[in-house]
Amino acid sequence: MDLSLKSEHKxxxxxxxxxxxxxxxxxxxxxxxxxxxxxRDDHVVWQQALGRQGWLAYTWPKKYGGPGWGxxxxxxxxxxLAEEGAPRIxxxxxxxxxxxxxxxxxxxxxxxxxxxxxxxxxSWCQGYSEPGAGSDLANLRTRAVxxxxxxIVNGQKTWTSYAHWGDWIFCLVRTNTEAKPxxxxxxxxxxxxxxxxxxxxxxxxxxxxxxxxxxxxxVRVPIANLIGKENEGWTCAKFxxxxxxxxxxEVPASKRGVGMLRAIxxxxxxxxxxxxxxxxxxxxxxxxxRALSTMALGGAPGPEVSTLKVRGSEIQQRIAELAxxxxxxxxxxxxxxxxxxxxxETPVGPDHAxxxxxxxxxxxxxxxxxxxxxxxxxxxxxxxxxx
Amino acid sequence: xxxxxxxxxxxxxxQAERFVRDKYAFDARRKIAATDRGWLPENWAQFAELxxxxxxxxxxxGGYGGGPIETMIVMEQFGKGLVLEPFLPTVVLGGGMIAxxxxxxxxxxxxxxxxxxxKQFALxxxxxxxxxxxxxxxxxxxxxxxxxxxxxxxxxxxxxxxADHIIVLARTAGSARExxxxxxxxxxxxxxxLTRRDYPTQDSLRASELTFDKVSVGAxxxxxxxxxxxxxxxxxxxxxxxxxxxxxxxxxxxxxAATLEYIKTRKQFGVAIxxxxxxxxxxxxxxxxxxxxxSMTLMASLKIDDKDPVVRAKAASGAKVQIGxxxxxxxxxxxxxxGGMGVTDELSVSHYFKRLTMIDLMFGxxxxxxxxxxxxxxxx
Lengths: 387, 380
What we know:
The structure holds two protein chains of two kinds.
Chain A: H1 7-23, H2 26-34, H3 40-53, H4 71-83, H5 91-104, H6 107-119, E1 124-127, E2 143-147, E3 150-157, E4 168-174, E5 185-191, E6 197-203, E7 209-222, E8 226-227, H7 233-247, H8 251-264, H9 268-296, H10 305-327, H11 336-340, H12 356-362, H13 373-384
Parallel strand pairs in A: 1-4
Antiparallel strand pairs in A: 2-3, 3-7, 4-5, 5-8, 6-7
Chain B: H1 7-23, H2 26-33, H3 41-50, H4 68-81, H5 87-101, H6 104-115, E1 121-124, E2 140-144, E3 147-158, E4 165-171, E5 182-188, E6 194-200, E7 206-217, E8 222-223, H7 229-265, E9 267-268, E10 271-272, H8 277-303, H9 309-338, H10 348-361, H11 366-379
Parallel strand pairs in B: 1-4
Antiparallel strand pairs in B: 2-3, 3-7, 4-5, 5-8, 6-7, 9-10
Helix pairs in contact in B: 1-4, 4-7, 5-6, 5-7, 7-8, 7-9, 7-10, 8-9, 9-10, 9-11
């Protein structure tokens, strides 16, 4: 066992840093460091640069066009990019649907969809939650009925991040209403340009638009877009959720957040509270590394990754809360123009003040999305503890 | 001992409840927030008519002889409706400070019209560097003939854009952060040399940054005595804190009621989610927190007229600590139990959460008041 880095790993980290410094737009980096919202181009331009380098699908095996990195390279890659202020990679393509396609898809599907995901030329979004199926995902009602060589899809998806930017959506749909809830679900890829697909924005409590309702009204989807077998989509769904929960802990961003807290806080009463969250981040990072190291030996992410998701979301929320407290009364001015629209408005208070409260409000979502804290704890109590 | 409301106080409570029910449905509030002023003159006129603007002032001052309990009753209902009219800066802060420290002519010129609904106030105490320290003031007032000249900056001044008069905390002597040497000046909202940058706040109120460039005021603009403004502003802020705590208890009642209703009706896994024990216990904790908040607010409201300033300060800080703690718990829990719906702009829950969050940050957060209370308790 050894925590120190070998010289080739140090060289690798420098290579990543050098790449980020040459390819990340200064405007995008500024948004990261100041906590403003990105627009579509911030993400796409950066992801396409990573794609050209062969690094966007950095968790994929070589066989499917990934770099074939081990745990250490992935760890360094994520941390260096966070330190350099890169936007987080939007997970829906490379982290979610990509692995589902190369694990459960046909050769034809792999050839058709994987290149666009690796290059970020095609943007993906996730059609999982529905108004009546949040924590109880298996209760989903969106119906897909076979008609010749197409499915006719009707229903509503909700909380769909970046649906307004998406070219494709991967959906869980009900193909059998007779079976048990989990047994009648299929995993379907839908082109967002298909007639009958409508996106409606949901405005969040901080004024941000990132999530949407997606309405599916008699949408015709070729059966060639079914991943895996009909009625066996729950297997794909669970595989994807386990992957989602692993990256969702956002350790590198939280490490950057702790550094930011120390930089903005001149109040001695905050120092210990910052130290406390700093240590929580270290415990989480080491737990995540232990999970990754198990996976590197051939294991799949087990149900214990749920604990990482729970702690990861609490830590992100705590950092946002402390950042707001550090600002104090100057957290009150609301400046949506600056946060969302790239206006030339100047901050009312200190430079770091405008995003502080909106970010605290917005980060409440982290203990709700990707399986709420309550659901994660149910998983751990049942699957790990056997209760 | 008697902790029950009098018949008059019960009537006042019903009156305030009715106002919120009639005028502050959630969509109506959204419309009020979107107006130029951010509040409605017709509502303010109604406050005057109902006597709310004068209820907490003595009859000698043209009021109706009530006190902190009357303020508490009305502020609590304002919290339930997330009322936007500037009652706190105008009546509790401005009016209260003038009533306690103003000269006879100041009261006649300012307090009487305020009670009639014809004048509004704002308090400018905060500066960029001051954080929660009321004494950290660098805006300077220098002698100019018989009067004074004010130069410097004030920040996050609630209601400055609507205020006819702004009460400004300025340094007339002493060094930075020294409580001695501070003086309060009553400045015309349209004074020459005073410029404003107006903005909305996270919780849909209005505030401003103010720049004073040699703003001239007469000797009669001084509120209280020269160099002795700190005690007045500290006491004024403590009283505002108690009123703010009452508003927060109203917010907590409303957000808890909305959450309870939601978990009774929202179904997942074939049952109302309120059937799950983990949510039941969290909901119980929300109600317990709101009870504690109500108790500390009542205690502070009963103590805030005490003649011992230390008793008043401890009561205000103690209640503010509880409000910060309970407000955060109820707000975060309500959002969590509403799931995705809780983080949307669409439901009222997120708006109560934002107001509770901002209340914690106003006049010093939970941590600040814990330290202040601790220091006062140790010194006793």
